[in-house]
Amino acid sequence: MKFSSQVLAACAALLEFTTAASTFSPARPPAIPLAVKSPYFNTLQYAGSDGGNGGYLYGQWPTFWAGAITAWAGMIKVDNATYSWMGDIPNTQTVTQTAFSYTSTRSIFTMNVDGKVEMDITFLSPLTPDDQKRQSLVFSYMDVAVESMDGAAHDVQLYTDISAEWVSGNRGSTAQWEYGTTSDGISYHRVWRQDQPEFSETNDQADWGYWYWATERTESLSFQSGADVDVRGAFMANGKLADSNDTNYRPINQNFPVFGFSIGLGSVTGSVSTLYTLGLTQENAIQFDGATGIVPLTSLWTSYFSSETDALSFVYNDYSTASTTATTLDNKISSEATAAAGQNYLTIVSLSARQAFGATQLVGNTTKEYLFLKEISSDGNVQTVDVIFPFYPILIYLQPSLAKLLLDPLFENQESGQYPNMYSMHDLGAHYPNATGHPDGLDEPQPLEECGNMLIMTLAYAQKSNDNAYLSQHYKILNQWTQYLVAEALIPANQISTDDFAGSLTNQTNLALKGIIGIGAMAQIANLTGNTADAENYTSIAQNYIDQWQTLGIAHDATPPHTTLAYGMNDTHGLLYNLYGDKLLNLGLVPQSVYDMQSAFYPTVNDEYGVPLDTRHNYTKSDWEMWTAAIAGVETRNMFIDDLAKWISATPTNQAFTDLYDAQTADWPIDAGHFSARPVVGGHFALLALTNPA
Ligand SMILES: *[C@@H]1O[C@H](CO)[C@@H](O)[C@H](O)[C@H]1NC(C)=O
Ligand SMILES: *[C@@H]1O[C@H](CO)[C@@H](O)[C@H](O)[C@H]1NC(C)=O
Ligand SMILES: *[C@@H]1O[C@H](CO)[C@@H](O)[C@H](O)[C@H]1NC(C)=O
Ligand SMILES: *[C@@H]1O[C@H](CO)[C@@H](O)[C@H](O)[C@H]1NC(C)=O
Ligand SMILES: *[C@@H]1O[C@H](CO)[C@@H](O)[C@H](O)[C@H]1NC(C)=O
Ligand SMILES: *[C@@H]1O[C@H](CO)[C@@H](O)[C@H](O)[C@H]1NC(C)=O
Ligand SMILES: *[C@@H]1O[C@H](CO)[C@@H](O)[C@H](O)[C@H]1NC(C)=O
Ligand SMILES: *[C@@H]1O[C@H](CO)[C@@H](O)[C@H](O)[C@H]1NC(C)=O
Ligand SMILES: *[C@@H]1O[C@H](CO)[C@@H](O)[C@H](O)[C@H]1NC(C)=O
C-alpha cells in the first residue's frame, strides 16, 4: 500500500498531537511497571500501540502481566472539579500527563491538573538483593505528591481504590474483605478469595493469599467498600467516602467491589505527599519435592514477622529507608551501566531490573532459604534451568549469593534421587508454584543444554562467592553431568536448545560450544576441589573438543567467516551467545580469534532492531543479544545495544518487555509465540556481570 505524502504528514501530525502531551524518559517502554515484585504481584500499564495507550496512567486500566485487568483507580478533586489520574473511569475528565520517567526501581508520572496543581506519582517496587528480609516482602509503594502550580491555594481531595480483580484470575469466584487499622495507625483494606485454594492459579494469578491496600489513618481519611460506581460516585459527589463496609461478599465481577480511600489534603500550596502500599501475603508459597519428598514451603517473610499486619506496618513505616535504598541501587546501576556502555545500555537494564526479580520469590525460613523462579509466560514451569541461565547475569552482578538459593532446589531434588535421568533436569515442576519434580523423568528433554548450564552456573557462583565447598558438596552430580557432555557435546544429537521454539537440529554449533565450555568449567571445578586427575583429564578433553569445534562449526571460506548454525551448513549463522560462558568464567578456552571473527561478522547480518537469532527465522532474542554484545568488540557491542534501546521506544508490542521479537519490524514474531514479562531480561545485565570482580 502506498500513502500520499499529505496522508503521511497528517498521520505524523496526529501522532504528534496525541503523544505530545507527555515526555518519556529515558524511553517509552512497551509496558510500564507499576507494582512488580513477584510472579503473582506483577501489574503494569500497557503502553505499546498493540492495544496500549502510549504510556499514560489514565484512560486504561492497569493490567496483570498475563493480560487481565487489575483495576487500580485514582481521582483528584481540585476546587470541586473531579479528574481521574489512573485507570479508565467513566464520566470523568482526566488530568494531563506531562512527563514519565523510569529508573531500575521506580516509575514516575507527572500530571498537570488544569494548571492549578501538579501531581508527582511514584510507583516504587523495591529491589533489595542484599537484604532478604525486605526482598521477601511482596509489597510495593505508591507515593502521590500534590503541589500548587500557580502559587494560589487550592482545595484538594485525593481518591484511590483497588478492585477485587487482584485476588484471583477467576472473576466468577467470591471475594471477601474487611477494613481495619493497625495499632500504629495504618488503615487497610484486606481482600481475598473466599475459598483460598492453596497453590492454585487461574490465568496465572494466584487464587490464595491476602491482599493489603493501605495508607496512614489521618483525620481526613475516609474509606468505603462497595460497587465501583457507588464508591467512585461517592467521591465524585462528596469529595469523601462514607466510612462504610459492603458486607455482601460476592463474585469479583458482580457489581465489581472496590476498596477506596479518600483523603482531604485541605488547602494546598506547598507539596503534600500521601503514601499508599499494596501487597500480597501468602503463608505458604511453594510445594517442593526436596530431600524428604513433597513439602509446603512458607514465604520467607513469615520468618521475620509474626503476622500479616506486622509485615504491613513494617513496610508502611519503612518507606524512607526503602526509598533511600532504592535510590542507592538506582544510582549504582545508572552509573555503572553508563560507564560500561552508555545511556542506551542504561535504558535497557533499568527497564529490566524489576521484571527480572519480579519472576522470583524468596521462600523457606531463615535456616533454609530458597529463591524460586517462575518461567513466566512461556509455560509457567518452576526453576527452569535454561531460563535461570539467561537470567543469571543480574544475580552475578547484584548479589551472587542469591544464585545459590536458586540452584539449591535443583541439586536437592536430583541428589536425593528423585529424578531418574543421568543428565540434568530441565525444570522442577510443570507449573509454578508446584516444584514437585519429575520422578518419571519426562520433563522437556534438553540434556546438553541443561548439563552445560548447571556446570557453568555452579562454577560462576562459586567463583564470585569464593565458595569451593559448594563445588565439593555437589562434585558427584556435577561429574555425572560431565560424563554426558564428554559423550554428547562435540557431535550434538538432534535435539532442542533453550530456543526450543526455533526447532530441533543436529550438530548445533552454539549448543556444542555450551557443552564444551561446560567440560571446561568442570576442569576448573575439579581443580578447585583438589581432583587433580579429573582436572587434567577434563582440561585436555575441553581443549581437544574446542580445536575440533573450530573446524566443524566455522564457515572459514565465507566472507566474512563466521560460526554456523550447524556443522557444515556454511550459509547459515546465529548468535553465538554461549561464548559468553568462556568469558564469564575466565576459562580462556576459546581463542580470541573466534571472538574477533564474530564481532566482525554480526554487523554484516544486522537488521533494523538487531541480529536475528539464527537464519531459520527473522526474530531475535534480547537476552542473547546482550550476552553476545557483552563479549563483542566495542563497535559491535554498541550496535547491539543501540538497536535494542531503539526497539524499546519503537516496538508496537504492548506487554512487559518481550525477549522475543521480529528484528525487522520490532513487532511480535509472526512464527513464534508471544513472550512477555520473562525473567530472562536479567540477561541484559551481561556486560555488568563481567565488571563484577567479586
Ligand atoms: C466547593 O463546593 C462547596 C460546596 O458546594 C462550596 O462551599 C465551595 O465554595 C466550593 N469551592 C470552590 C473553590 O469552588
Ligand atoms: C467496617 O468493618 C470493619 C471490619 O471489617 C470494622 O472494624 C468497622 O467497624 C466497620 N465499619 C463500619 C462503619 O461498619
Ligand atoms: C498445584 O498442585 C495442587 C495440588 O497439590 C493443585 O491443586 C494446584 O492446582 C496446582 N497448581 C497449579 C498452578 O497447577
Ligand atoms: C526450616 O526449613 C527447613 C527446610 O524446609 C525445615 O526442615 C525446618 O524444619 C524449618 N525450620 C523451622 C524453624 O521452621
Ligand atoms: C554431524 O556432524 C558430524 C561431524 O561433522 C557428522 O559426521 C555427522 O554426519 C553430522 N550429522 C548430521 C545429521 O549431519
Ligand atoms: C590447579 O591449577 C593450577 C594452575 O594450573 C595448578 O598449579 C594446580 O596444581 C591445580 N590444582 C589441582 C588440584 O589440580
Ligand atoms: C577422562 O574422562 C573420560 C570421561 O569421563 C573417561 O572416559 C576417561 O577414562 C578419563 N581419562 C582419564 C585418563 O582419566
Ligand atoms: C563449508 O566450509 C568448509 C570450510 O570452511 C568446507 O571445508 C566445507 O566443505 C564446506 N561445506 C559445504 C557443505 O560446503
Ligand atoms: C523474513 O523477512 C523476509 C524479508 O523481509 C521476508 O520475506 C520473510 O517472509 C520473513 N520470514 C519470516 C518467517 O518472517
Question: Mind explaining what this structure looks like?
Answer:
This protein is α+β, with helices and mostly antiparallel strands and 694 residues long. It folds into two domains: 5-321, Beta-galactosidase, Chain A, domain 5, CATH 2.70.98; 342-689, Glycosyltransferase, CATH 1.50.10.10. Helix content is 34%, strand content 24%. It has 19 helices and 29 strands. The strands form eight sheets. A nine-stranded mixed β-sheet has the order 1-8-9-10-11-20-17-14-13. The protein has a six-stranded mixed β-sheet with strand order 7-6-5-12-19-18. A hairpin with a 2-residue loop joins strand 2 (31-38) and strand 3. The N and C termini lie far apart (56 Å). Mean pLDDT is 96; it is low at 1-20. Bound molecules: 2-acetamido-2-deoxy-beta-D-glucopyranose (9 copies). One 2-acetamido-2-deoxy-beta-D-glucopyranose is lined by residues 364-365, 367-368.
Overview in brief:
With 694 residues, the protein is of the alpha+beta class. Helix content is 34%, strand content 24%.
Structural class: alpha+beta
CATH architecture of the largest domain: Alpha/alpha barrel
Oligomeric state, counting identical vs distinct chains: single chain
Question: How widely separated are the two ends?
Answer: 56 Å
Number of strands: 29
Give keywords.
694 residues; alpha+beta; Beta-galactosidase, Chain A, domain 5; Glycosyltransferase; 2 domains; nine-stranded mixed sheet; 34% helix; disordered N terminus
